[in-house]
Amino acid sequence: MSVNKVILVGNVGKDPEVKYLDRNVAVANFPLATTERGYKTSTGIEVPERTEWHNIVLWRGLAETAEKYVKKGSQLYIEGKLQTRSWEKDGVKRYTTEIVADVMQFLGKRADSGQDNGTVSNSQETPAAQNSFEAPASDDSADDLPF
Amino acid sequence: MSVNKVILVGNVGKDPEVKYLDRNVAVANFPLATTERGYKTSTGIEVPERTEWHNIVLWRGLAETAEKYVKKGSQLYIEGKLQTRSWEKDGVKRYTTEIVADVMQFLGKRADSGQDNGTVSNSQETPAAQNSFEAPASDDSADDLPF
Amino acid sequence: MSVNKVILVGNVGKDPEVKYLDRNVAVANFPLATTERGYKTSTGIEVPERTEWHNIVLWRGLAETAEKYVKKGSQLYIEGKLQTRSWEKDGVKRYTTEIVADVMQFLGKRADSGQDNGTVSNSQETPAAQNSFEAPASDDSADDLPF
Amino acid sequence: MSVNKVILVGNVGKDPEVKYLDRNVAVANFPLATTERGYKTSTGIEVPERTEWHNIVLWRGLAETAEKYVKKGSQLYIEGKLQTRSWEKDGVKRYTTEIVADVMQFLGKRADSGQDNGTVSNSQETPAAQNSFEAPASDDSADDLPF
DNA sequence: TTTT
DNA sequence: TTTT
């Protein structure tokens, strides 16, 4: 009964920090900037450009891809969900909102991503494969459906 | 290097048609309506309400869920991708655009969906599981309102 | 060069708080919950259900609509953007991430929203009107099911 | 009570065709390709790469921007809605599904778009302006809200 | 008909 | 802290 989805296109603020946890599970973090253009209202008021910084978190395969290919300045498409974590500092409870990514796309001209195609996701196979587990994909090809 | 995503909230036009293909792979089809309110332009012209019909296609587990729980009139959230198929009729090539769903959500009051939660997806586990890490989520549980 | 978009479907945690600022500009705030189902990993670990709370902010017309029709428990579709504000408490800088909504949809059975259709947006006319062309839409009306 | 949203990132297949209708209203059309990577299933079957072609339609200001800056090969982010039109050819009714865009973003390195920032939308001002009609934006700056 |  |  619920949907929690974030879609961002922006630029990476610094190289990812990657950690390896138990069982060698990788986690990566980096900031992503989205910038809204400034404009002038109909009443002549200047609204300045505004940059928003987003904390991106990636797990496992996506984190490993980020470690290899994401750099400060990279332009990315990110799809994920919002998650707020709490932590303590000096006895004060604080909250951080992060975007936990499921899909990461490299945009713009191929840099050195080494991917045939810029798409990566955290499903076991490619995103397309989310609809074709266990049985061969040829069986569920929509192209030969007789209707 | 690409994204193909559709997000719909609408009402089902008729009960799903479900077929079982080779290896018992299920496919379901049904029409989903989205309706844009009519309005009046600043120049006083009436733009009527407009209903758009979308061909929804679901595979495997999602198709089986649709068979059981989706009915004419159901309100659904659908996330998927656009796909255009071609077919011939009377020697004329024709095209049909469909939304192949990855995520289907039952909205509104719980009917008899039998799901604890109305969300279903075509990944092997739940959507959350796409990032599943074996570590407990309890430490950063946001179950208590942080504001 | 950037995109900052959030899409949520969830339930309102408490009645909106609405303030009127200078020039009678309305702002509304309320928490929205999204819940991810719990599941069991392939290695047998139980991942519990997880509720995420989102701070929704609405301005002007949307805030006034929220004041009238949004209640604790309402099921809503929200589309907006992420925005992080900073503020100080006890000399400590703190951050809050909010979703500033452009589109709010009432889901589920019609309560008493008083709208012909549950959609509301902050554009001057309806969302459809963003592309409003003064020509009639009747020629390409898709009101009859094309399949 | 409904949502009809499409989000695409892809490459333009040919230069836009632009027409000017009554009252000088511009309409632009072009094909946009999204490509899903091929992959191998767990049972060893090769699923080939698949390209999907989308018919993009833009009105007014967006059409004029497309006329100036969109070229064959351009990488774009498109946000819009699905719309199916019917037309007749040789006495046979046929249907075409199009994406009517509200938002168009130029991705990748700046070519010669001439925009300070690649974002364009069909609202009267910039997307940000959708939340600030009539009154100055300074009044509704979230930054000085005392809550 | 694009892109990798 | 990015990008334009």
Automatic annotation (TrEMBL), chains A, B, C, D:
Domain of life assignment: Bacteria
Gene Ontology terms, MF aspect: single-stranded DNA binding
Any one GO CC term of the record: nucleoid
Alphabetical GO biological process terms: DNA replication
Region annotated Disordered, chain positions: 111-147
Keywords, alphabetical: DNA-binding
Biased composition (Polar residues): 114-133
InterPro entries: NA-bd_OB-fold, Primosome_PriB/ssb, ssDNA-bd
Pfam families: SSB
Assembly and oligomerization: Homotetramer.
HAMAP family: SSB
Name listed for the protein in its UniProt record: Single-stranded DNA-binding protein
